[in-house]
Amino acid sequence: MSRSSLAQDPGSTAAFTVLKRALDLESESRGPQALVCYQEGIDLLLQVLKGTKDETKKRNLRKIISDHMDRAEHLKKRLDQEKEAGKYHKQIKIEENATGFSYESLFQEYLSETVTEVWIEDPYIRHTHQLYNFLRFCEMLVKRPCKVKTIHLLTSLDEGTGKDQHSGLEEIKQSLRNHGVSLELEYSSSIHDREIRFNNGWIIKIGRGLDYFKKPQSRFSLGYCDFDLRPCHETTVDIFHNKHTKKI
């Protein structure tokens, strides 16, 4: 029985669609996303297998499942080797006015339960909307499965309205303390780079730092609250892995 005949089943059709997406992602060097699609596609085929009585169809399904499991395992080993060697690099290009890039969507796959400490280097945590961006980032860290205990922020001092910046960051610091998280603040006049590090080895560099969202059209427009719906400025996100993460 051919794969095309298997695809006549709705469940198989959905599975093959997801597995094709996995192959496409792997060919585009988007390994982590490909692994997710492999797992989803394999799970769908396993569900089809459970409901299949035809022995020939079962044999075909087992062969397809086994082949994709082997491919997914090989990909996982290669990604792990790249991480160990410090050679892992993934790049995301956010187009002008693109949506779907909230902090949760961008960072969630890197925030495991092992994350307890985070370093943020961003010269532009100064104005009110930038302070709110940082606050949203902190909220994500508190509510994700990770168990963050310490956040380090290195930013530049706003010489014009530094008082507002300082008071805002102190309020965030106190609020984090109420949730059992310590915020360590440091200012530098020579900072230019933008970088976020997690102590599980992930390093994320965003061209515009945390400030890549556009101003909402109005207070009552979609995207004002849900940042997945907020249009973005064009920027590039580079993601690396280094098991020996250094402090800023």
From TrEMBL:
GO CC terms in record: late endosome membrane; midbody
Q: Which UniProt keywords apply?
A: Coiled coil
Which InterPro entries does UniProt cross-reference here? Answer: MIT_dom, MIT_dom_sf, MIT_domain_contain_protein1, MITD1_C, MITD1_C_sf, MITD1_N
Signal peptide positions are: none
* GO terms, biological process: cell division
Q: Which residues form a coiled coil?
A: 58-85
Gene3D superfamilies, sorted: MITD, C-terminal phospholipase D-like domain, Phosphotransferase system, lactose/cellobiose-type IIA subunit
MIT domain segment(s): 8-86
What Pfam families has UniProt attached to this entry? MIT, MIT_C
Q: Which domain of life is it from?
A: Eukaryota
- Protein name in the entry: MIT domain-containing protein 1 isoform X1
What organism, scientifically named, is this protein from? Bos indicus (Zebu)
Taxonomically, what lineage is the organism?
Eukaryota, Metazoa, Chordata, Craniata, Vertebrata
